[in-house]
Specification:
22% of the residues lie in helices and 21% in strands. By secondary structure, the protein is an alpha/beta fold. The longest helix has 26 residues, at 276-301.
Length: 412
């Protein structure tokens, strides 16, 4: 027999918990279903030395904004998890419950779980976009003695087999892991994509401070050049060791071998595109555009911030273009797939997705009354999936659940 409840939130990460906070404050009958054993599972899937990339002051969960002694610091993994455990403690969260199906009924929605069924007037999908590690099919063509691991399962250099490491993917995770491996004495090969770079600090402030001030994170999804633009990676940056910049040219200077995009694998060899220089140019251009935006904002507002010329490195352009790498000859024992994740909303049995599998919605509100999405990249703005902005979208959804007749639903 199904259990009746007004609202079911699927996912107990920062999005689901933020919404639960607002609904709890309003006295609204609801329940959060989390398949993991604890809160903040996405943060648990990070390496041991992981820290936030965003400064602590950008942690703005509703009811739990950061007010500690180090606002400009970067919380380490253990403190992030402890923060989520405290945040979830007073909320109605059920752990170890995996939702398998959401279907529409005459009165609302039927949520099937592995051990229980719920009937609800509203259901909010707050599972995020990090459900399935992205590992290409070519991984099956690699020699069986090569240890392969996704960045979400990497923990520390000492846990890997001896030998060199090939990291495929140069987003935040790939670059931070490559840097750590290099610092631990590993020979590192890094397959580079077009993810951009941002300096840790610029003109006297953390770059995030400037970007918040100039409205960068308030950009709404409707202004993107195309729907696929929402899937771009986050700029290369690190919060480790007090926070610092990441630079592929510095990597080359430190001995990391830079490679183009991975294209295939055969006979113990990995094949790469000869586009390394093109990728480096795109990375450099993004930083230049970012700095110009900050400079323009400072000039427009008449702010006092001494000009700063960042050190311009170009070491990567001088490196050899390698299109084929023999894993055994290069002594590579490990490949780390740092290509991000894919989402999986297959539990929702309704035609509510576009050709990319992304929900059709307006700020999380779908064409089906009572069905919502929350915590996705570019759900509404650039910060919708960040600790900085997820609470704003959660507040919007909470109001919509309370007064749905006052707002309009989008059309697919």
């Amino acid at each position: 027999m199904a259990r009746n409840i007004q609202t079911v939130i699927i996912g107990g990460g920062q999005a689901g918990l933020s919404l639960s906070y607002y609904l709890t404050q309003a006295g609204h009958d609801h329940l959060v279903l989390e398949s993991a054993a604890g809160a903040g599972e996405a943060w648990r899937q990070r390496w041991d030395s992981f820290t936030l990339v965003t400064p602590n002051w950008t942690t703005r969960l509703p009811g739990m904004e950061y007010n500690g002694p180090d606002p400009d610091g970067f919380l380490p993994r253990a403190e992030i998890l402890a923060m989520f455990e405290r945040y979830a403690q007073p909320l109605p969260v059920m752990y170890g419950v995996r939702a398998t199906s959401v279907q529409r009924t005459e009165t609302g929605y039927r949520i099937e779980c592995e051990t229980i069924t719920y009937e609800a007037a509203n259901v909010v999908i707050a599972t995020g976009t990090y459900q399935s590690p992205k590992i290409p099919a070519l991984s099956a063509d690699l020699p069986p003695d090569i240890f392969q691991v996704h960045s979400g399962q990497y923990r520390t250099s000492s846990a890997l087999p001896e030998g060199a490491v090939l990291v495929i993917g140069s987003g935040q995770s790939g670059c931070q892991i490559a840097e750590e491996l290099c610092q631990h004495g590993r020979k590192v090969y890094l397959s580079v994509g077009s993810t951009g770079r941002a300096p840790r600090r610029y003109r006297g402030q953390d770059t995030f401070w400037w970007l918040v001030k100039c409205g960068f994170f308030d950009q709404i999804s409707d202004t993107l050049p195309s729907p696929k633009a929402r899937f771009a990676g986050n700029p290369q940056l690190s919060g480790a060791s007090g926070g610092h910049s990441l630079n592929l040219h510095q990597f080359a200077r430190d001995g990391v071998t830079l490679l183009g995009r991975v294209q295939g694998a055969q006979d113990g060899r990995v094949l790469f595109a000869g586009n390394l220089k093109e990728m480096l140019t795109k990375v450099d251009e993004l930083e230049a555009n970012l700095l110009k935006m900050i400079d323009d904002y400072i000039e427009k507002e008449g702010l006092y911030a001494p000009k700063e010329d960042l050190l311009r490195l170009r070491d990567g352009y001088a490196t050899e273009t390698i299109t084929e790498l023999n894993l055994h000859t290069a002594n590579i024992s490990t490949i780390i797939w740092a290509m991000g994740y894919t989402w999986d909303f297959s539990l929702v049995k309704l035609p509510v997705f576009d050709t990319d599998g992304y929900p059709v919605q307006v700020r999380g509100v779908t064409q089906y009354p009572g069905l919502y999405f929350l915590g996705l990249h570019w759900l509404h703005t650039r910060k919708s999936a960040l600790l900085l902005g997820v609470g704003e979208d959660a507040a919007y959804i909470a109001r919509h659940i309370a007064t749905p007749h006052e707002l309009t639903y989008p059309t697919a």
